[in-house]
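Deviation from plan, reported transparently: iron/sulfur cluster complex.
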Amino acid sequence: SRIPTTWGDEVRELARQANAVILAHNYQVPEIQDIAHHTGDSLALSRIAAASDADVIVFCGVHFMAETAKILAPERTVLIPDANAGCSLADSITADQLRDWKSEHPDAVVVSYVNTTAAVKALTDICCTSSNAVEVVESIPADREVLFLPDQFLGAHVRRVTGRKNLHIWMGECHVHAGINGDELAARAAANPDAELFVHPECGCATSALYLAGEGLVPAERVKILSTGGMLDAARRTTGGTVLVATEIGMLHQLRQASPSVDFQPVNAQASCRYMKMITPEKLLRCLRERRDEVLVDPETAAAARTAVQRMIEIGQ
Ligand code: 13P
Ligand code: SF4
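Because the crystal trials were delayed, the predicted structure below was used instead.
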């Protein structure tokens, strides 16, 4: 058999021996993005996990993403290089809080962002990601109340696009995206008057981006509210010029590879997710060598969450 000579060779060789597929989120460090079999946004990676015939899914991302893979592929072994890689957004609502909220709105349809724990997904009707949140909400009859959780900024974006009045929004947030604020965006846009703006809807500045467009401070066609996967699609259609990027800075690696002639600049260069960065090259190697950390979801919870997650991967294909 082949003798591995570098970290990358050993990672790929161990993956081959275990019939493992390595998935990496767009916010992972560049080395991990480059060694993964697939790099993408949370929706794309969920779809790949669901369709995969690998025996082992190694999820380089945060814990809820690996849990989602386990919910979709319960018969597979799901590993994450560090089970402590959490998510401040997923932590912003507990199953008990959701139970209480539902009891105040017993007829409402519950739409949960994929950034939630398996226990919250088990109390959910449909999950969504930032790529299909609008389509998911539009799939619900207009007269039904909707509980949208946990992200207030994504919720505000969905409300704006759908014009839906009966959408109740949980006031959670991701500490990284909430920290990318409107003043920073306005200053960066003023300093780069010809730049395009790619803004993730979880950002605190998503409303400001639309405000800038509404006031004519930035031409509306240059302001794009996009998921990380949507940013990559848009990057592939762009040549030359500057794009200001409002999201976690790991995204810049994929964008620069997708369109090398564009100058991609972070709106906030400090917007780094400490949870995403817990997945290091060393821990990925350890994960494959020692088969840890394994991600398990209690089968009853997984069964209750599965329909909601399956609807998510079917909507917006
Ligand atoms: P997407 O990749 O779905 O845009 O998600 C962003 C995110 O913050 C995941 O943690
Ligand atoms: Fe969670 Fe925010 Fe990190 Fe994404 S960037 S994993 S939403 S804490």
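The longest strand covers residues 20-25. We consider this an acceptable substitute for the interim report.
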